[in-house]
Give the backbone structure.
Amino acid sequence: MEQKQLLNIMAAAIDQALSNMHTCTIAKITAVNAKTINCKPVFNRVVDGQSIELPVFSEVPPIFLQGGSSFHAFPISVGDYALLFFTERCSDGWYNGQDFVAPLEYRMHDYSDGFALVGLNNLAGAITIPVVIQQTGDTNQDGDYTHQGDRDQTGNLKLTGDFNHIGDTIQTGDKQQTGTLTVIGGMDLTGSLTITSGDIVVDGISLKNHTHPQAADSGGDTQQNTGVAT
């Protein structure tokens, strides 16, 4: 066998091995499950000159940013794109809770061992790189939240729980409160104060029902809300 033929055979064998060594690929999500996704690779394989679509990969675990018990988990929708990573060895044992054990199967770089990093876009859906952190969509947070710097919000804010504020408050617009308002300190009011029901009590004295002492020849005390001598 000539040396050139041998090199051609070796090159063909290497190409064949590389064509079945999977590292990462792009896939489109076809279903969203409770903890996994189904997705279909968007790159066809060429077999004997024919373009062949790959099947749907089922129960692929998504990758979320996490540290300790804190994590960022984002909603996933059918039609999103994901970057699939394939581990060097069978990951079934680890995924089922076993560390530092031999692989359950001796496959390598296999389509069965993929993990999906969701959030990839082609040029048509590419996100413009912002100058500050940008978030679009609803947020549900459990745990403490610390923020430094200004915050501009457009839309409604619903809070369940206590609210502690240190600093001045400037409000433009109406304010409706259900429940008792307790003020510790002074209050300066510019404008009218209208009370449609209830009373104002200052040091135990009712604004609606208190009396004014009158001189002896005036007929007695006068009740504030009626003007009738008592």
